[in-house]
Amino acid sequence: MVNTSSTYVGRFAPSPTGPLHFGSLITAVASYCDAKAHAGQWLVRIEDTDIPRIFPGSEQHILSCIDAFEFEPDAEIIFQRDRLDLYHVVLEQLQQQGLTYACQCTRKMLGSNHIYAGTCRNLGLDFENNAIRLIVHDQLISFVDILQGPQSSNLYNDLGDFVLKRRDGIINYQLAVVVDDAMQGITHVVRGADLLDNTARQIYLGQCLKSPQLHYMHLPLAMNAQGQKLSKQNLAQALDLKHASTDLQHALQALGQAPVELDRPARMLTQAIAQWDHHLIPHGLTITGTYK
Ligand code: GLU
């Protein structure tokens, strides 16, 4: 058990775009054990703002997994779809501060160019029926990831002004995640390394909103036999609730932790928390193995 008197509030924030798979379990287990080993809290948030990408039944699967793996969230589970008004208030606030602008560029107009050139920045377009972008500056955003080490990015050169609300009205993940992390008092973000390059955007947006700086730990990704990360697109297997204990054992093994006796999940988690050591997590962006 890590001993610390400082506050720790962690979270697991899956998107219901497909059923949870072994990669999701690794994130859930690591975020849970790290929070509990610091005598912290662990919250669950369902990130369902991107309605067209929601996969039917996956939300229920997430909730069933939380139960079957006997994770104990420290607060009621929240759903981002219930918080849309809040995100709009924050958008309004950013607009009043002159930090955003409306953008009419379509995907087609942007083509394969991944760095937004700021085409609409000074056009003074109507905020109602357009996308909303956050203005970024030519400055380095740096942070030290607990596992991946020092990171830095210049959003102006690497990305350009980025979208907070899409033309179709959908609130972008970046906005929802930053607002909710701040509102829920999150202090530590433990998630997959596929989100590492979103972090500079989120730190910058957090700064615009005067949110406290968070600690980040990006976990290496479990790869399938073809060397691809587990995902719905790559046909990752949905977690089977009947195999919770063995899956838990495999997840802890993938995280490099000391072995835990096979038992009911709650007991296994208690043991895993007691012996949790994040230094043992394999370093790097991927975990070699053949996960499904
Ligand atoms: N909802 C995101 C996902 O499922 C994770 C967000 C986060 O942990 O910041 O990929």
TrEMBL record:
InterPro entries: Glu-Q_tRNA(Asp)_Synthase (IPR022380), Glu/Gln-tRNA-synth (IPR000924), Glu/Gln-tRNA-synth_Ib_cat-dom (IPR020058), GluQ/Sye (IPR049940), Rossmann-like_a/b/a_fold (IPR014729). Transmembrane segments: none annotated. Zn(2+) binds at C103, C105, Y116, C120. Its cofactor is Zn(2+). GO terms for cellular component: cytosol. Its EC number is 6.1.1.-. ATP binds at K232. GO terms for molecular function: ATP binding; glutamate-tRNA ligase activity; zinc ion binding. Binds 1 zinc ion per subunit. Keywords: Aminoacyl-tRNA synthetase, ATP-binding, Ligase, Metal-binding, Nucleotide-binding, Protein biosynthesis, Zinc. PANTHER family: GLUTAMATE--TRNA LIGASE, GLUTAMYL-Q TRNA(ASP) SYNTHETASE. This is Glutamyl-Q tRNA(Asp) synthetase. The gene is gluQRS.
